[in-house]
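Postdoc handover notes: sequence design on the structure in folder B. Input tokens:
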């Protein structure tokens, strides 16, 4: 199956949710970007269009309020 090459508006949210599951099940130190991209069937290039690193995702997940997450992810959505 080929990986998706287009970013949709929901993809940053999907990446955050998927990363959160991997962090919970494998731990942050054992989660790789490839785990997330393989699960979502997207390329690493697409991942990096949405986020700079796993550290950035972790920071977003730990942000103080859900509103902060919404603001940051909305800025990263693409049409």
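Designed sequence:
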């Amino acid at each position: 199956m080929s990986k998706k090459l287009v970013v949709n508006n929901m993809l940053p949210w999907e990446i955050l949710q998927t990363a959160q599951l991997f962090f919970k099940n494998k731990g942050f130190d054992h989660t790789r970007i490839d785990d997330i991209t393989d699960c979502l069937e997207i390329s690493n290039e697409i991942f990096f269009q949405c986020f700079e690193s796993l550290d950035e995702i972790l920071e977003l997940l730990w942000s103080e309020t859900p509103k902060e997450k919404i603001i940051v992810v909305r800025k990263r959505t693409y049409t």
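Context for whoever picks this up: The chain has a mean pLDDT of 82. Don't rerun without checking with the PI first.
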